[in-house]
Amino acid sequence: MLKKFIPDQYVQSIFDLSIEELKEQGIKGVITDLDNTLVEWDRADATEELVAWFEKLRDSGFQIVIVSNNNEKRVKHFADPHKITFIHSARKPLSRAFKTACDLMNLKREETVVIGDQLLTDILGGNRGGFQTILVVPVTKTDGILTKFNRRIEQRVFRAMKRKGLIEWEKSKDNK
């Protein structure tokens, strides 16, 4: 059961991802969470650094879809200025929105990576859907009410994975 929570890769930030390595693995599409993955959950707009990252991805031939459990107003306000396709109210960890994102990009699962900051939604949903998954450290330590609840459960999952030797990265997420 715990194996469904294990990401294929763990990085401190989306900016630490190697776009070249993703290309070498045959990845052509990025499905990314929004809140606390790309920007703080309470930040309305993308940072300059993030806009440059979007451009670098696109210049490298990648397609991008934001898949968020947040509402349409929030996700649309963020995604539209950057002409990024999005799926709101995704109901992660259900895998339907991830599959829809693949269809929107006209890509196979093997050509797509799921990036997110939560084990219980992004990683579990991506793994259940058969995608490569990448866990990032949340960009801020604060969370909305529902996410705070998920983080408590997530910490228990991390501890259990660590006890069973399932975590392969040097430092667990809670030891940054």
From TrEMBL:
GO molecular function: N-acylneuraminate-9-phosphatase activity; phosphatidylglycerophosphatase activity
One annotated GO biological process: N-acetylneuraminate biosynthetic process
Residues annotated as transmembrane: none
Matches recorded under Gene3D superfamilies: HAD superfamily/HAD-like
Coiled-coil segments: none
UniProt cofactor(s): Mg(2+)
Entries under Pfam families matching the protein: Hydrolase (PF00702)
Highest taxon, organism lineage: Bacteria
UniProt cross-references to InterPro entries, sorted A to Z: HAD-like_hydrolase (IPR051400), HAD-like_sf (IPR036412), HAD-SF_hydro_IA (IPR006439), HAD-SF_hydro_IIIA (IPR006549), HAD_sf (IPR023214), PGPP1/Gep4 (IPR010021)
This protein's UniProt keywords: Hydrolase, Magnesium
UniProt-listed PANTHER family: N-ACYLNEURAMINATE-9-PHOSPHATASE (PTHR46470:SF3)
Protein name: YqeG family HAD IIIA-type phosphatase
Native species: Salipaludibacillus keqinensis
Highest classification ranks of the organism: Bacteria, Bacillati, Bacillota, Bacilli, Bacillales
